[in-house]
Amino acid sequence: MPRGDKSAYTDKQKRKAEHIEEGYEHRGVGKKEAERRAWATVNKESGGGEKSGSGRGKPENHSASRKGGRLGGRASASRPAAARSASARRAAATRKRHESS
Fold first, then answer.
1. Which of 29, 35, 41, 49 could connect to 24 by a Cys-Cys bridge, CB 3.0–4.6 Å?
2. DSSP state of 77
3. Average model confidence (pLDDT) for the chain?
4. What does the CA dihedral 86, 90, 95, 98 come to, rounded to 10 degrees?
């Protein structure tokens, strides 16, 4: 089996990698890098491609995903309330401007 062959992965793992890849691309990561990160995430969570046979499965570990989600708002939370409020006002003004055009 050549390197990079995805035949050992389940359909669920392939769907998960595709979804993660789309998320990275949406955030501005390049196509190849997004694919690399997506498969790395699938491998970390599920332990790689699934092998056949009874009792060979292992539970998935979502700790890294959970940690990433929890860390998401930290940067914003550390800013003073006045700065957050000013950003919100600017954003509202931008939305209003774009709505009229």
1. 29
2. H
3. 86
4. 180
- Tell me the one-letter amino acid at 19: H
Calpha distance 55→46 (Å, rounded): 15
- H helices present in 4-47, as ranges: 11-26, 31-46
Q: In the chain, how long is the greatest CA-to-CA distance?
A: 61
Quote the pTM value. Answer: 0.62
- In angstroms, the Cα distances linking 35 to 24, 47, 51, 91 are 8, 17, 22, 32
What is the full per-residue pLDDT of the chain (101 aa) written as tens digits? 678 888 889 899 999 999 999 988 998 999 999 999 999 999 999 888 877 777 777 888 888 777 776 776 777 778 899 998 999 999 999 999 998 76
Q: How far apart, in whole angstroms, are the C-alpha atoms of residue 74 and residue 32?
A: 29
